[in-house]
Amino acid sequence: MKGLVTWSVAHARTVLLALLILLLTGTGAYVTIAKEANPEVDIPIFFVTVPYPGVSADDAERLMLRPLERELQSIRGVDELQSWAGEGFALVRLDFEAGADNRQALADVREEVDSVQPELPEDAHEPDVREVDLSLFPVLTVNLSGPMNERTLVRVARDLRDEIEAEITALAAQRRR
Question: Is the pTM here over 0.85, yes or no?
Fold first, then answer.
């Protein structure tokens, strides 16, 4: 380490020139790279849910998960497949490889789910295929403080939370129309 410092001091102009080149190159790259204020990030993750009221977890696995897993594993580009069975439902999570076309992946998942639907129990509800969409998960953090006691702050925070959730629900309903 001492040798590097000694060499740097002895060749100060070379070190400063290298630093200047790095700074100019970095600044140029930063200016030319495309940037967005709110980038659209597509995550190729999908959930398939099959509600079946009254079914046990073991029966849900045997009657619904196994046929779904068998068909869904054959989809090209699936990186990981996880499944869960519980009382009254079966759930499958499909993670596709990074960079996968979400529209094509969604179409493939729906096609395979439609093909396995006749094998599912008649009383089971229709399978629901959902895509993970980060734009539907806004993040909002609010800090409240003021010259009042904790009980009042908690009440105000809960009222504010309820108002925000009501507004978000109304906006989501408009978006679905």
Answer: no
pLDDT digits (tens, 9 = 90+) for 15-27: 999 999 999 999 9
What single letter denotes the amino acid at residue 59?
A: D
42-132 in CATH: which number? Answer: 3.30.70.1430
Residues 45-54 pLDDT 10s: 999 999 999 9
Residues 6+ apart with CB under 8 A from 63: 52, 55, 120, 121, 124
What is the biggest distance separating any 2 CA atoms in the chain, rounded to whole angstroms? 83
Angle at CA of residue 68, ends 66 and 71, nearest 5°:
110
What are the helix (H) ranges across 11-149?
12-32, 57-60, 66-72, 102-116
Residue 95 to residue 78: CA distance in whole angstroms: 6
Q: Give the three-class secondary structure for 33.
A: coil
- On the CB side of 158, CA atoms within 13 Å amount to 5
